[in-house]
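Good morning C.,

I know you're traveling, so I'll keep this short. The sequence:
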Amino acid sequence: MNLDLLKALDDIEKDKGIAKDVLLEAIEAALLSAYKKDFGSKENVSVEVDEETGQVMVFSKKKVVEEIKNDNYEILLENAEKIDPEVELEEYVDVEITPDNFGRIAAQTAKQVVMQRIREAERDVLYEDYKRKEGEIITGTIQRFHKDNVLIDMGKTEALLPVSEQIPTEQYRVGFRLKLYVVEVSSTTKGPRILVSRTHPALLKRLFEVEVPEIFDGIVEIRSVAREAGFRSKVAVFSYDSKVDPVGACVGPQGMRVKSVVEQLDGEKIDIVKYSDNPEEFVSNALNPAEVKSVVIDEDEQSATVVVPDFQLSLAIGKEGQNARLAAKLTGWKIDIKKESEFEEMQNKKEENKEKKEELEEKDEKTIEETVEKQTDDQQKT
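The tokens, ready to paste straight into the viewer:
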């Protein structure tokens, strides 16, 4: 090893943040392995690098004895005293056994170790950088395809957009730039593994945070999101300022804000509804654009029966049940939608059944009274 490499270690410490002593320890460990491999050593050896000169020395720890039985592990007292004049029998002394050509091996090994550590450090920096971006939006360019997965160019590394996180209606082409939600970042030997999504509900939330200043400022809050990526989504919003309409803020002037989000999601339809702590009102709002006549809440069953005009039933349910399904996801309530005429018929039947029940109860009471009176009369006669 030479002085130039030692100076390089100082530069690496400044530029890459890898401590010089850590690099030297790694180099010494690698040199020890190289020595044992190349020289077939079974001795108890160690390797030291002089930080001032760069000189590499190999030492063998040997026991001080009067008579040698094994050259690899023992040394005579008279020879040991040349190394350490104060050494005594049965003690150990380090004997230098550096091979003549070990300097060349040391230089090559040291360079390999340093390069490996630099790569590891760069991987760690990348990992930490993207780990902080979990749950956030990043922008990337489609680089290539692997089977059905899309690999996104992030500049210094790649991100993976698997099939399960792709919008089914979206066409992906090399060179396209996309907004992506970072689902998970994990560390691997090849660098950070970045899993991104185009379907995650939080992607919609983050896009609105970018487009709507009131959300960024904390005046308006997105309380919940229900999404069927590529087709339709519902967003429930709430305002902490009574003067600010949360739905209007998200829609924006002439619908520009919501249009911007829709464009970034390949034309996905987005319903923005007002959140309410009142479940009847919230469920009613969630079924927008359908008109709702009334909502009956069953808290025990966590369900809501919704009554709509007959001509609004298909609109309330939506294509293939999509509107009702998204409303249920958005509110957390099971939703059963009834036509107004059907609901009235059900109510009438309930009333009829109630009346019949009351009549039967009255009849039963009358029968009981008559029976008691008869028994009383019979007792009096006897």
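Safe travels,
E.
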